Amino acid sequence: MKINNKYIMSLIVAVVFAAAIFLSLTTDAMAYCFFEPFKCNIGIDGKYYFYDEEKYFYNSDIPVFESVSQRGRQALELMNTSVSPKEAVNLFFYGFNDFYRILTEECCISALNSELILKKSGDGFIVSKERFGKKLDEDEFCRLFALTAATNNNTFNVETIKVIPEVKFDDLNGKIGVISEFTTKMQANNLSRVHNIKLALSNFNGMCVPPRTEISFNKVTGARTAARGYKEANIIINGDYEKGVGGGVCQASTTLYNALLLADVDIKEVHSHTLAPSYVELSFDAMVNTGSADLIFYNPFSTPIAFITSVRGDEVKVKIYGKLSDKSKKIVRKSKIIEIIPPPKRPETPDEENKPLLNGYKSEGYLEYYSSGKLIKTVKIRSDKYMPR
């Protein structure tokens, strides 16, 4: 009887295909037969948590043909290299990272600093109570976990570490006051502009900035758009005044900037306007623009600072509260004009002839530091150029 070669080939392909399916279906089952899961009771501050490796078995690619003690010893050996204890344990025990994350969420508490909370009256701050925290020593926990596995034990105990908050109630209570304030003047009848200034500064009113924290004006206020409630008012575009959404916000940032300078807060980013401002001295303005120009500052102190802002009548005011220090110390701003740049000749057209001429300037800004009325040092903080118009 003649055997068809095509039939034989088809039969071989079918057999190979069936074998592949069988192997794929049985690999996990075979692996499970060789798998020795680690089960461990972990006592933390007297409360016990159970690690059952079997729960995580199908979620990892860890080799399963090694005993619990072998894997524990390998993890301990790996800890003697550049690999972190947590990484070492997770390499040899299924689901350890997930287990440890859930464990810390249940038994650890973050420490909370005392903060300045705006009074309901809006005219000052109260001090909140601190909260002590607790945490696990991650490296020691992982070492004990691996050691328990390596020695074929199933229980170990650890205690959490007390986390002390950096700022406590007693550090601030009765010691908080105004450490600086600054006021700029505005046209109270320019309602859209007043609205924008008030809206921008409302984001800072009552804000508490923790120690060693950086703040971005643009991130706090968000984009100045109509959808966020901002209105059209004059803004500077290409060296000229035009209507635009958010006009006046730069006076808000400028008032805040000068209050920050007088409080000796670190300025990380600040920009001048194209044209000389009318509401503050040269080299003491702070132009902001979503996406391109920001006012960024950093609280360098070991205690928080907080803001109270107000827009009333023709005044824009920012007060900064913080821990009161030596009252004999004072900071004074000094603006220095280096050069006056006269405006260019204009073409005699109806559009141009009615526009007021504005000088340009090169200027510098300085801070003078006094102690008991005596000048201690003078610091140049910036140089600027304002275009004529």
Describe the structure in your own words:
By secondary structure, this protein is α+β, with helices and mostly antiparallel strands. It has two domains: 31-163, no CATH class; 175-325, no CATH class. The protein is built from ten helices and 19 strands. The protein has helices at residues 5-34, 68-78, 85-92, 96-107, 138-150, 169-172, 191-202, 217-221, 249-262, 350-353, and strands at residues 39-44, 47-52, 116-118, 125-127, 133-135, 155-158, 161-163, 176-185, 208-209, 214-216, 232-237, 240-245, 266-269, 296-298, 305-312, 315-323, 329-341, 360-371, 374-386. The strands form seven sheets. The chain has a four-stranded antiparallel sheet with strand order 8-16-15-9. The chain has a three-stranded mixed sheet with strand order 2-1-6, covered by helices on one side. A three-stranded antiparallel sheet has the order 10-14-13. It is elongated, with a radius of gyration of 34 Å. Mean pLDDT is 88; it is low at 21-33.
